[in-house]
TrEMBL record:
This is ABC transporter substrate-binding protein. Gene3D superfamilies: Periplasmic binding protein-like II. It comes from the Bacteria. It comes from Deinococcus sonorensis. CDD domains: PBP2_TMBP_like. PANTHER family: ARABINOSE-BINDING PROTEIN-RELATED (PTHR43649), DIACETYLCHITOBIOSE BINDING PROTEIN DASA (PTHR43649:SF12). InterPro entries: Bact_solute-bd_prot1 (IPR050490), SBP (IPR006059).
């Protein structure tokens, strides 16, 4: 998260205050669908026959595919509650705009999930969940604080529960590191030095694959970890841009130098997003890559990696900043209820189910179908669960370590415009533009956006 201003601190403080009065989490009382049901759901099927509409995308993701089956017609959730859920599966590229249109025009959907940075635009149209969370004794302490803040509005209302989330982790070639007797780097500075060593001793292999292309803000993910780790930030307490100050300049210059000066990443990284940068390590061309933990299933799939990569990829928490901190972006998809829904109580039952740690553990530990396998889980107890880790090579526990200090992107309604300025500017610097003058221009553009959005005069 960016450093919280007064409103941000109040928002986080209220969230933590609510956490303090909550008891233990939802504990399943495994019984029949007619009696006491599992996962803290209401007994007696009071919403039997309700059909919910869920605005979401990406049913190709293993977690979503499994949960859609569990909550659809004939699934476990319907057996327990009598409620069935229709998952929309909107294309990801169209989801943000559709959510905004649905929110502002009176949605026919009951439930919606969104990427954290999109939230401020639709939070006013969602139902506060504080009283429901307290009544059902949901343990918010089991979720990363970054996830809870991203699902909290400016008045301190929690308007969504964490549903799908990702820490950044560093993937690396274990066989290469073992052969060269290299320690796993813990800071970005050590990453660069390690990459240089690898390129000197393993000609033809790139030390680090990164991404500087313009693609849904993906070139910001590693940059913000450097910025935050160095003590910088995107916005200050008053929501003014400060990424061009001395700390920001130092972190940004370092990020650009990886490509232009140190040359430890492919020259083509100026066009890379996640797919292209991850492919470098999947195909055995790169020794390190920092990305979302859900990529682990790809690295473990013989159909998606080259023979020399299979069973030779290790992982560690994403690197921090030498002399600073480790504060990486923890991305989360909260799930909430539209105020316009006529089925709010049934919708809350659905949210309790899909965010419940025992349901999430069942999904994350299920590797019966490799095409649906997904290590994604949003609670610390789930990330530390032995069965979940055994099914996923231990990466959930490592992800949990990374999420202890993770932050979320600025929760401002103008984020979409700000993101565009930032990702285009990063790409311009990567392709040759002067870092300081470009950062200053970007800051002026963001300042104009913030004034237009009404954050200050």
């Amino acid at each position: 998260m960016q450093k919280a201003g007064k409103a941000g601190k109040q928002r986080l403080g209220l969230s933590l205050g609510l956490v303090g009065v909550l008891a233990v989490g939802i504990v399943p009382s495994m019984g029949s669908a007619q009696g006491n049901v599992a996962y803290g759901l209401k007994a007696g099927k009071p919403y039997n026959g309700t059909k919910l509409k869920f605005l979401i995308c990406c049913l190709g993701a293993g977690q979503f595919a499994q949960l859609s089956k569990l909550t659809g017609e004939g699934g476990e959730f319907q057996q327990l509650t009598g409620i069935s859920v229709q998952w929309e599966n909107t294309p990801y590229e169209a989801l943000q705009q559709k959510e905004l249109v649905e929110a502002t025009t009176g949605s026919t959907y009951d439930v919606v999930s969104w990427v954290d940075a999109w939230g401020e635009a639709i939070k006013p149209y969602l139902v506060p969940l504080n009283s429901r969370i307290q009544a059902d004794k949901v343990n918010l302490k089991d979720y990363p604080s970054a996830y809870i803040q991203a699902a909290t509005d400016s008045s301190g209302n929690i308007i969504g529960m964490p549903f799908r989330g990702h820490p950044l982790v560093m993937f690396y070639r274990k066989d290469v590191f073992d052969a060269l007797k290299l320690p796993v780097p813990r800071t970005w500075q050590a990453v660069v030095k390690t990459a240089q060593t690898i390129q000197q001793k393993k000609p033809g292999m790139v030390g680090l694959s990164t991404m500087y292309g313009v693609n849904a803000g993906q070139n910001l993910f590693n940059w913000v970890s450097m910025l935050w780790g160095n003590g910088g930030d995107i916005l200050d307490k008053g929501n003014h841009p400060i990424f061009n100050n001395a700390k920001g300049l130092q972190a940004t210059q370092f990020y650009i130098d990886i490509l232009r000066k140190d040359k430890v990443t492919p020259a083509a990284a100026t066009t890379y997003g996640e797919p292209e940068s991850s492919t470098q390590i999947l195909q055995g061309k790169a020794a390190m890559w920092v990305g979302w933990w859900w990529y682990w299933s790809k690295f473990a799939d013989p159909k998606q990696v080259s023979a020399d990569v299979l069973n030779n990829v290790g992982f560690a928490p994403a690197p921090g900043w030498a002399g600073g901190t480790t504060q990486n972006y923890g991305l989360v998809w909260p799930v909430g209820i539209f105020k316009n829904s006529k089925n709010q109580d049934a919708a809350w039952e659905f949210i309790k189910y899909v965010s419940n740690t025992d349901v999430q553990k069942k999904v994350a530990a299920n590797r019966s179908d490799p095409a649906l396998a997904d290590n994604t889980i949003v609670t610390f107890s789930g990330m530390n669960d032995p069965k979940v880790n055994a099914a996923n090579g231990g990466i959930p526990k490592v992800g949990g370590q990374a999420l202890k200090t993770a932050r979320t992107l600025p929760q401002v309604r103008s984020w979409a415009e700000i993101q565009s300025v930032l990702e285009v500017g990063i790409n311009q610097m990567a392709t040759g533009a002067d870092v300081k003058s470009t950062l200053d221009r970007m800051a002026r553009d963001v300042d104009a956006i913030q004034k237009r959005a009404g954050y200050y005069k």
